[in-house]
Each structure stands twice: as structure tokens, then as C-alpha cells.
Hints:
This is SDR family NAD(P)-dependent oxidoreductase. GO terms for molecular function: oxidoreductase activity. Its EC number is 1.1.1.-. It holds the Pfam family adh_short. The chain is an alpha/beta fold. It has a single domain, classed as 3-Layer(aba) Sandwich (Rossmann fold), CATH 3.40.50. The protein contains seven helices and seven strands, in the order βαβαβαβαβαβααβ. It has helices at residues 14-24, 37-49, 64-78, 101-129, 149-168, 194-202, 212-223, and strands at residues 4-9, 28-34, 53-58, 83-86, 132-137, 174-181, 234-237. The chain has a seven-stranded parallel beta sheet, with helices on both faces. It is globular. The chain binds NADP nicotinamide-adenine-dinucleotide phosphate. NADP nicotinamide-adenine-dinucleotide phosphate is lined by residues 9-16, 34-36, 39, 59-62, 87-90, 110, 137, 139, 181, 183-184, 186-189.
Amino acid sequence: MEEQVAVITGSTSGIGEDIAVKFGQGNYKVVVVGRNIERGNRIVDSIKAGGGEAIFVQSDVSQARECEALFRKVLSTYGTVDILVNNAGTMRNRPITEMEEEDWDDILEVNLKSYFLCCKEAIKIMKEKGYGRIINISSRGWLGGTAQSNYAASKGGIVSLTRSLALETARMGITVNCVAPGMIDTPLHQQSTEEEVSFRMNSQPMGKVGTPRQVTNIVEYFADEENWFTTGQVIYVCGGMSVLASLSS
Ligand SMILES: NC(=O)c1ccc[n+]([C@@H]2O[C@H](COP(=O)([O-])OP(=O)(O)OC[C@H]3O[C@@H](n4cnc5c(N)ncnc54)[C@H](OP(=O)(O)O)[C@@H]3O)[C@@H](O)[C@H]2O)c1
């Protein structure tokens, strides 16, 4: 099989980094995307040191112009895009009465608008070639969480975006799917307060956090050329938390 080109947003850290590293060990040319140049270059170097192929593109994917420039760079370097993993994300938890307009806007821009912008650019390319795999990283938190109305709304928006685009691209050879992680041990998760973590741990059926690799494994499934009949789906990687009612933190 020919090497495929995989664009992974937010791959300078955490879950995205793990996806980039794992894809770099497989049959993929990897485009590492984020704002932090030092971390981006370090990940590209480690992929190349392992015999893989990768570039880093610095991009704030919440900005339309930067997204367009990102995909122009990918086309000029590798000529195509086969896989898009939308993973860039952040969190700013506040009770609703303390949530400022910018807390809402910033989270929605990074977590949801960037997915729309990258999907738009990727689908233009994928539609032409009649092939593509899009994997959107949502969160179990889309089911609801106290002091997370901005984050939950952005992650719920990702599920709706995924389902809508799955229908829109169903006859284009493109699949669009979603992974909804629960607590995964990354720098983002480590931002949570001790109180939040202990509450979630008590509500966690397995009583432990997951690793980024648990998410990567599902991303790989959705990215596989052979899995062409699965689209518009959400797979939870959360140790069973989604089975419980939505929780407060
Ligand atoms: N960890 C968890 O427990 C958990 C649970 C559910 C869902 N998730 C989701 O999983 C995804 C990855 O999270 P993580 O835990 O791996 O967090 P992380 O370690 O903090 O990584 C977040 C990544 O997003 C990138 N990013 C943030 N804003 C960006 C922007 N404007 N433009 C481009 N890149 C941007 C960061 O890169 P730069 O700093 O270089 O820009 C970084 O690479 C997120 O969508 C998150 O919501 C995580």
C-alpha cells in the first residue's frame, strides 16, 4: 500500500503527539500541527529518528487564514491529504455565572471552529480524489459536566459536525468519525484541580485514567482504508464512564 498523508492537529502534546508518533511508525507521512515550534520540531525529529517521514507546520488552527496556509503547505510538500485528525483542544472550566464571553468564545474557536475550518480544507482535497478519512476528537464531557458548559458545548458540537459531515461526504469515498475520550493522562488532564480529579475518579468505573495510546488505537481503526463502511460514529474511550449518567465535577 502507498504511504498515506495524515494531518494531525494539536500533535505537539498529549493525545495528538501519541497519534503522530504511532502513525510515524506506520505507513504514513505525518504532518505535526500546533503553535509550539520547539515541541513540534522535537516530535518530527523523533519520528524521523525512527525511520518515519514527518513535517511540522506551525498553525493556530482556530484562524481560517492559518488553516488555509496549513493545507497549502501540506499540498506543496506531500501533494495530497488522506487523513485528517482534528485533535487541537483546550479547556477553561468556570461556573456559568463566572464565565466571561471570552471564555466561551476562545474555547468554541479552538475546540469547534478549528474542526470546521480543517474539515472544509481537507474535504476540498479528499472530494477531488474520492477518498478520505476524518477523525474528530470530541470528549466524553460532551454528555455534560458542571462548570464545563463551554467545553461540553464545543465537544457536543463536534459530535453534530461529525454526523452531518458523514452524511454530506457519504458518496465521496470519505468517512467522518469521532472518538470521545474520558480521562486520559496528558498535560490537559493535569490542569484539573485535585477536587475535580478525585470526583471523577470516584465516578470512574475502572478507577483509573487512560493513556493516550488507548485513543490512538481507535483513531487507527477509523483511519484504516479497509474500514469504509463505518461513518458518523462515536466511540467512547473512557473506561465505561459514558455508561453512567452525566456527572458534576
Ligand atoms: N486528556 C483528556 O483527559 C481528554 C479527555 C477528553 C478529550 N480530550 C481531547 O483530546 C484532545 C487533545 O487533548 P490533550 O489531553 O492531549 O491536551 P494537550 O496535551 O494539552 O494537547 C493539546 C494540543 O492542542 C494544541 N492546540 C491548542 N490550541 C491550539 C490552536 N489554537 N491551534 C493549534 N493547536 C492548538 C496544543 O498545541 P500548541 O500548544 O503547540 O498549540 C497541543 O498540541 C483535545 O481536543 C481534548 O479536548 C482530552
